[in-house]
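Fold it.
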Amino acid sequence: MKKFRDNCSSDCLASTLFISTKPTEETTDQLIKQVAKGGGIAFGGSVIGKVAALGLNVLLGRVLGPGAYGLYVLGISVIGIAQSIASLGLNQGVVRFCSMYRGERDNARVKGTLLSALGISSVSSVLMAAILFALSDTISERFFNEPELSSVLRVFALVLPFYVLMGITTSFAQSFRRIDYQQGVQIFRLLVNFALVSLAFLLGFRLAGAVYGFLASGVLSAGLGFYFLWRIFPEAILNSQATYRAAQLLRFSFPMFLIGISYFLLSYTDRIMLGYFGQANDVGVYNAATILSMNIVIFIAAIISIFSPILADLHNKRKYNEIKSLYKVTTRWIIITSSPLFLILALFPDTIMSIFGVEYQIGSRVLIILAFAYFVGAATGPGGVILQMSGKQDIDLVNGTFLVIVNIALNIWLIPVYGVIGAALATCITLTLIHVARFIEVYKIFKMIPYDFHILKPLVAGIIAAVPGVLFNVFSNPGSLKLAYIGLPLVVFIYGISLWGMGLHPQDKIILLAIIRKF
């Protein structure tokens, strides 16, 4: 340790000691505890974030109405794709390489990777913002036939660089396994956005208030992200050695950039196509169902936030047995936590959609279809993360490229015939295909499968809990308060009791205790 300290400058001693005090060898149980603690923090943060995001969208949907809300959603969709392009996949590059270099105690390469990512993304995001600002009228009038969308896109273009840089800082926190900082920035952004939009509505502003609230929250959140970056790694701004390997970073990040484009196209093509073939009202209803259905993957997103840096480090050290164990336990917990959410959305769609307003209940069938698609994604485990963090990102790029083409073709075919239902079917088919493909590829390449006998427990518990839900639907009016106040809690309670009665796996007990202690 002394020799290691002597090789570092006095400026970097604090951060070096932080890295070097981490255990060099971690047992499987220790790794499971880390996943549980980090996942628990991320899950708690995700719950708060989802509640804030849901509250914001319900507020927007009710105050603006489906038409103006649809314009806001179209703007978010366009800026989401622009952000994915401007990020160039550097977020994932930061997670992978900073995790690896941190595990090797190489601060110089950690700093070089971080500064390279910040510099490249700054240039790309400013350029993309300028292009979006200049083309806002063309996009609004010629593609969407919504002239009022132009002013929304211009404001969103101004905040684009701040969102891109915020993504780099939160990815860096993730690479250091500081999920608390990563989630802190996201929660801060959502809560500030909610507060600013609420204030704007009280002052009499409508769509303009929603748009400028998004702008201000993005700027403030980027500032918080840089503050946390300095707290984690003060060497980033101190005069210390940096080893730059921008070519290696870009070689990994560019395929990830293309994968990110495919993700956003998969996520937003349906809404964009609805805007093209239909009306803003259709987009508003469809987006409400999408927001609700995506809650199914809340735990898989939490797990991935801590699983990604751990996986990158383990793969770099060729510790494949540990990876296999984590693959099984994380998939099992993703299914355990996703099943009750899927049951609620599938059994009580009218009640859930009415959160946005009675006029949104026409999207109940859309909600069921999308809920199934996201549950399939949860049930197949974090296969995409394994491919990407193990350096097999080119394979996942092929997956994404092929399925984007399939998704666009299905939307063009199904939306003119079936409307919002057609968009939901196109998304469901595409997401199911990509998750099944990743599952098969992980098995073929690494000879790993995330299932064992214990995976049947949450599935059996889900079937048992579905029985009273079906009965409530038969003997109650859809969307009634009786369903909301009695049926939903009853289904969740029966699911929990049934799962507990079948017994917990020893690793599940480790996770449960770690989460309880953390909270």
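The chain is about 80% helix and 0% strand.
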